[in-house]
Amino acid sequence: MIFRYLATGCNFSALAFYFARGNNTVSKIVADTTRNIWECLKDLYMPVPTAEKWKTIADRFQDLWNLPNCAIDGKHIRIQKIPKSGSSNFNYKSYHSLVLMASCDADGIFTTIDVGQAGRNSDGGVFRACRLGRWLDINGLDIPTGIKLPHDQGDIQMFPYYFVADEAFPLKSYLMRPYPRRVLDNKKRIFNYRLSRGRKTIECAFGMMASKFKVLSTPILCVNEETISSIIRCMCVLHNFIRIREGRAYQPQYHKETEMNMNIGMNLELENENNNLPTRNSASGLRDYLSNYFIQPQSALPWQWNYCTS
């Protein structure tokens, strides 16, 4: 019954009619079943990442998207108005929602999720209030301290691991966001493009989950907030289950031998910019360092090399 509900998006009344049960009974069955699925599968298909797992995720991002990182974003889950909730869940898109704050690896598999923040809050506000944001502030996720960027010839020997987010999130040493559009030059545009290559994985993960579970195509017709949160957590862990058991892994967009031939001559003006790389450990300094790193010949994308050397 629960899989019929998640896959088709039918409401509790339709399930109650189909199974000849009352709405309250069906609601309780859905709540208990989704909670049990989450408890049974979360340790297998969404465990808390270890330091070695974070390194594996970063390496996979580098292989696929030429960017060592982990993507993060928020998704508004449309819901029916909860009684006596006022406008707390009414978002800027003009419907009631709860926010799913999630991060994923390079293959669109969720690594962390946080469910239940009110829809009226922005992604940045939800990030600061959710457990992921608080853990990152106190370095409580066992994330390694840093690593030398591939082919890096700059001054910073150990660049911190970081998440990638959109403009709605704050800029932190562990959270990289794009440059504002009003101050863009070519170097900053390249940086924004490289970040978008990594950040699209979380958007794809949300899209794949929505295509599997049609219940996300319409408002979740439930008035119990805890039940809604259980349904969302259940869908996330089932998404991981399907991706790991039956999904098709992404393939790198270029061959390794292409990368081995990347350190040949290019524009000398770009190489000379490396002499003025910022070395301070502030978030803006690290972003500027990364933007300079991306335009260096040894770290440019393969198609950029082919274009510049042709």
TrEMBL record:
Residues 72-240 form the DDE Tnp4 domain. Coiled coil: none annotated. InterPro entries: HARBI1-like, HARBI1_dom. Pfam families: DDE_Tnp_4. Signal peptide: none annotated. Its cofactor is a divalent metal cation. One of its GO terms (cellular component) is nucleus. The keyword Nuclease applies. It is found in: Nucleus. GO terms for molecular function: hydrolase activity; metal ion binding; nuclease activity. Keywords: Hydrolase, Metal-binding, Nuclease, Nucleus. Belongs to the HARBI1 family. This is DDE Tnp4 domain-containing protein. It comes from Acyrthosiphon pisum.
